[in-house]
Design goal:
six-stranded mixed β-sheet, disordered N terminus, globular, seven-stranded mixed β-sheet, alpha/beta
Length: 493
């Protein structure tokens, strides 16, 4: 096929990366390509991702469907062996893929390196659960005797967001494949390159068609949602987009797992330990990846008796942050992934300031960051804002943290349990029993005690949200079985 990359773009910086589609075990090039920009210097082209047509997206579904019968018929332990062997094909390329992730995503290099290892760890965690697929429930008679076993569903579409795309993929893709399904993966449009490179390597160890990868516009990849051969859709992203995914899935009554937005509260009790270690956990809990994590602390409620102490401690810790390009070893926070997200957070901060809240912008901006045009924001604390402001009620997804004092923890509990979101929460207390008692009353998918965010996520446990934070669970035995259907065989006599 012909290639339409403008010469000026091809000559920008050093040889941009170019990725194609992966369909039926082959790399497929396209007529059109989408430029991927560096969030730290948006005029720089990191690479070009293939822009699929509707026909190519449909071909990817067809390839997955054709590969399904033989993959599903294979014993689960054999599938586990093949997946484990395919995983070894990623060895030795971690540094290059992490560097590419930093350039297209903006996150600091350490986070990109961790992301590559998380995919491997989550895949191995899935493989460890293979025995649960062979378990058959028996209901003995007379007069009826039934046997219930699990069957794979068919073609699974997996759609992931820009922030930790490869790590997030590890929460679903290996579980889907292990259960006997085949897959089509849709990488995020602004951060597709490192994921395609990773999946090209991984898929080389799998039978052709078991794993397919399609990049392109929402309109072009619509068959990944609406083709009747797609029996399950896994989506991680915003609540608004999740509703659109669910509506599309309804056309064929495809199953869905939706891990959606979170406006995650941290509740700091009057006996909380606020030493350097715990303040560091709170900073990481709220500002990891410049706040662009679904399970990050998005609002902090602190007992009024500890409010001033906590604010001062957080401000001191955040003032050591250096905001700059993720490729700079001195940077502790990178840019936001897009100008639109930066502008959204800025608007929320302006709104809060206009309403009378004190805004403390902290840390330092790297010397060349301001002139690069990058999507940089310094970390900010929003002190005692009106609870009705957007910075409190919505998911800001950026480096801005509202801090609200409280007198009665029960009123905080009532508020957060009746909010639109219910992804994660955390309780901070020196008393384990007291913290556990409060945690058990919180209606969120995960509640941490004295920690928060992805660094504290137990990948052996199911992960997902309540209310508009999602449907279904990923990871752990629950996540594995969510990629199967219960099949009952009943005999009389």
């Amino acid at each position: 096929m012909s290639e339409r990359i403008p010469t000026a773009l091809a000559e920008t910086r050093a040889a941009p990366v170019r990725t194609g589609l992966l369909i039926g075990g082959r790399t497929v090039e396209t007529d059109d390509w989408t430029a991927v920009h560096n969030p730290a210097a948006p005029e720089q082209i990191v690479g070009h991702a293939a822009a699929a047509t509707v026909e190519q997206a449909r071909a990817a579904v067809a390839a997955a469907d054709a590969a399904f019968p033989s993959w599903a018929a294979m014993p689960a332990h054999r599938r586990a062996e093949i997946i484990g062997q395919a995983l070894t094909l990623l060895d030795g390329s971690e540094a290059d893929r992490a560097a590419l992730m930093t350039r297209e995503n903006g996150k600091i290099s350490l986070e990109s390196q961790i992301e590559m290892s998380v995919f491997v760890a989550r895949t191995r965690a899935a493989i460890d659960l293979v025995d649960s697929l062979d378990q058959v429930r028996h209901l003995d008679g007379p007069p009826l005797t039934s046997h219930i076993h699990r069957l794979p569903m068919g073609v699974v579409t997996v759609i992931v967001p820009f922030n930790w795309p490869i790590a997030i993929l590890g929460a679903s893709l290996p579980y889907a494949l292990l259960a006997g399904n085949t897959a089509v993966v849709k990488p995020p449009p602004t951060v597709p390159l490192a994921m395609v490179r990773t999946l090209e390597l991984f898929a080389a160890g799998l039978p052709a068609g078991v794993l397919n990868v399609v990049t392109g516009s929402n309109e072009a990849v619509a068959p990944l949602l609406t083709d009747p051969r797609v029996r399950k859709i896994v989506f991680t992203g915003s609540t608004a987009a999740g509703k659109q995914i669910m509506a599309a899935a309804a056309q064929n009554l495809a199953s869905v797992t939706l891990e959606l937005g979170g406006n995650d509260p941290a509740i700091v009790l009057d006996d909380a330990v606020l030493d350097q270690e715990h303040i560091g956990r709170l900073v990481q809990g709220a500002f990891l990846t410049s706040g662009q994590v679904c399970m990050a602390v998005k609002r902090l409620y602190v007992h009024r008796s500890r409010y001033d102490e906590l604010v001062d401690a957080l401000a001191t810790a955040l003032d050591t942050q250096r905001v700059g390009p993720g490729t700079d070893p001195a940077s502790t926070m990178g840019p936001l992934n897009s100008a639109a997200q930066r502008d959204k957070v800025t608007a929320m901060l302006t709104e809060a300031a206009d309403a009378g809240a004190e805004i403390r912008e902290l840390g330092t901006l790297a010397p060349n960051a301001a002139s690069s045009g990058g999507h940089f924001l310094r970390p900010a604390l929003v002190l005692d804002p009106d609870p009705g402001l957007r910075i409190v009620t919505e998911e800001q997804f950026g480096p801005a943290l509202p801090i609200l004092p409280f007198d009665d923890v029960d009123s905080v509990l009532d508020q957060v349990n009746n909010d639109w979101s219910g992804l994660c929460s955390s309780v901070w207390s020196a008393d384990p029993a007291r913290a556990a008692g409060l945690a058990e009353r919180l209606r969120t998918g995960t509640t941490w005690i004295n920690h928060a965010n992805a660094v504290a996520c137990d990948d052996r446990a199911p992960f997902g949200g309540f209310r508009q934070s999602g449907i279904g669970r990923e990871m752990g035995p629950d996540g594995l079985l969510s990629f199967t259907e219960a099949h009952t065989i009943t005999t009389h006599g």
